[in-house]
Design brief:
The chain has a single domain, classed as Flavodoxin domain (Rossmann fold). It has 6 helices and 8 strands. Strands 1, 2, 3, 4, 5 and 6 form a 6-stranded parallel sheet that branches. It has a two-stranded antiparallel sheet with strand order 7-8. Helix 2 crosses helix 3.
Length: 191
């Protein structure tokens, strides 16, 4: 069974990105083990090299590192903050990516290298987080991930994720299913 890590990179408990990732998890199917990395599971301070000697912080980073490392693929749900990824997403990646460098050989692997990544964003704006996903694409590519060319941008999310469920335009629902299928194929190819 392949492991897929879903990271809703928003601190809000009921964020639209969390709702989007829950929807994508259903589309993936039961042949995948889904791990959702929630904001309430860890609290990392703003990255600061002076804190790399703090064993409590490193223990928390290590727990997150292992979840990225065990994943066969990543789906990132990133809100857009002024045209960029959320500080929460960037900070988490900064800490996890440093662990290999500061604690090798205990953490010898780059947990991002050759890892398939599907980028998605659900926002209340009309661009659907497009600019933030360009930023995410740059960051994950730099970390060594295999970032899919296709991505999901959900605009006006408050009209899509309603109290009555999820309401996508049928054509866009088909597009989402197609992108998820491409992601499944990419994960299987690189397993």
């Amino acid at each position: 069974m392949m492991n897929i890590l879903l990271f809703p990179a928003s601190l809000r408990k009921h964020s639209y990105n969390r709702l989007l990732l829950n929807y994508l998890a259903e589309l993936l199917g039961e042949e995948y083990k889904i791990d959702i990395l929630s904001a309430d599971e860890f609290t990392l301070p703003l990255f600061n090299q002076d804190l790399e000697c703090d064993e409590e912080i490193i223990a928390e980073v290590a727990a997150v590192y292992h979840r990225f490392n065990l994943a066969d693929g990543l789906i990132i749900g990133s809100p857009e903050y002024n045209g960029h990824v959320s500080p929460y997403l960037k900070n988490t990646l900064d800490w996890v990516s440093r662990l290999q460098r500061i604690r090798n050989p205990v953490f010898p692997a780059n947990p991002f290298f050759n890892k398939p990544v599907l980028l998605a964003s659900a926002t209340t704006g009309w661009t659907g987080g497009l600019l933030g996903l360009q930023d995410a694409r740059s960051i994950f590519g730099y970390l060594g991930c295999l970032v899919m060319p296709g991505q999901l941008c959900i605009s006006n999310a408050e009209n899509v994720f309603t109290g009555n469920g999820i309401c996508f335009d049928p054509d866009y629902a088909n597009y989402i299913e197609s992108i998820v299928g491409q992601f499944r194929n990419l994960v299987q190819k690189h397993k």
